Amino acid sequence: MDILSFAGVAMAFIAILGGNALEGGHIGSLLQGTAFIIVAGGTVGAVMVQTPLPVFLKAMKMTAWVFLPPKLDFKAAVEKIVEWGNVARREGLLGLEAMSEAETDPFLKKGL
Question: Is the pTM of this model over 0.85?
């Protein structure tokens, strides 16, 4: 987990509790279900108005990445990129065409 993700969530809670305490509010007033529904529902609704459905659904699925990012093998990625560079240098850019057809990752395939 990224330390800034944890720090950001902690900072948000501290700011909310601190602001509430400075205004003389009670902790119980922050735990109202109706207020949560208004804020959370309004936020999600505003995002839905500005976002196409496929992008919105993908974003909701990716929300867990904030705390559980996917594991990436950087060493393998670097080796693959170096191999592509060697092929491009020896055979030219057309030598990468066969490699791009064999690539399974859509992002890398488009890049090749």
Answer: no
What letters, b where the CB count within 10 A reaches 16 and e where it falls short, cover 42-61? Answer: eeeeeeeeeeeeeeeeeeee
43 or 112, which is more confident: 43
- Which residue blocks in 1-112 are alpha helix, DSSP H? 3-22, 27-30, 33-50, 53-62, 74-91, 96-102, 106-111
CA 59 – CA 88 distance, rounded (Å):
35
What is the spatial distance between Cα 59 and Cα 62, in angstroms, rounded to a whole number? 5
**Cβ-count burial of 66 within 10 angstroms (0-12 exposed, 13-18 middle, 19+ buried)?**
middle
Q: What residues contact residue 14 under an 8 Å CB cut-off, 6+ apart?
A: none
Supply the pLDDT for residue 1.
62
Counting Cβ atoms within 10 Å, is residue 93 exposed (0-12), middle (13-18) or buried (19+)? exposed
Reply yes or no on whether the pLDDT at 18 is more than 80.
Answer: yes
